[in-house]
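Lab notebook, design round three. We kept the backbone fixed and only want residue identities now. Task for the bench partner: fill in a sequence for the structure below.
Input structure tokens:
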């Protein structure tokens, strides 16, 4: 039988393309999203009961949604930079 000249150690040195899997959401972005959803629910309940405290919940929902967006985008940019660079 002929030797093809390719050893098993040579096969591992072949550059492989990066896997195109969906990126995992960073943990801080996930926590901020959960806080956003809970504060939105609290705001709805508060306004239904006629309490003006719902305004605080709306402000917290806005802040946490911005944080979730920021951390998710930062995580995507870091992952893209690590794959390409």
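Proposed sequence:
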């Amino acid at each position: 039988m002929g030797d093809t000249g390719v050893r098993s150690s040579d096969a591992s040195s072949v550059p492989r393309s990066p896997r195109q899997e969906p990126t995992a959401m960073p943990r801080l972005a996930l926590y901020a999203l959960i806080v956003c959803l809970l504060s939105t629910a609290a705001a709805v309940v508060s306004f239904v009961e006629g309490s003006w405290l719902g305004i605080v919940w709306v402000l917290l929902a806005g802040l946490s949604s911005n944080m979730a967006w920021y951390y998710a985008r930062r995580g995507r940019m870091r992952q893209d930079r690590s794959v390409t660079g």
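Keep this in mind before ordering anything: The mean pLDDT is 83.
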